[in-house]
Amino acid sequence: MEKNWYVIHTYSGYENKVKANLEKRVESMNMEDKIFRVIVPMEEELEVKDGKKKLVKKKVFPGYVMVEMIMTDDSWYVVRNTPGVTGFVGSGARPIPLLEHEVHMILGSDLSGVPELPKINLAVGQEVTVREGPFEGFSGRIEEIFQDRGKVRLTVSMFGRETPLEVDFGQVAEME
Fold first, then answer.
1. Per its UniProt record, what SMART domains does this chain match (predicted)?
2. pTM of this prediction?
């Protein structure tokens, strides 16, 4: 038998409680050899409120929890009957494991240990205002987003000319 990742459906908002409950059940029912890791996929997002930048963790898939386990009747029973679990994701009587590339796509940094840069709620073509730095108060349109570097390139009007400007995510805010 080999271990695979499975997705379980939970009541929305109960993901962390299900994770804790399942981890306690695994320990109390001596299932450590069949159920290995329980993860609520999260990502960091840069949020600006009242002029302050803040990194917040948000659930990638609200209502879902991932479990790494060897699928047996016993391990299925332990997971399925954990309070807050409504079932496994998949059709038919037996849950279908995630494919390896799906696991890496969903968990990415959780498996590699390398943190990702925070996600942002900005889009190419969006109008933004520069909030801080030497260009504070300038408005412009986002031309390019560099997620890997945590920067955006925007075009601002300076002295009657369109000028490209590259700033950090946290230096811009959506136009209100």
1. KOW, NGN
2. 0.62
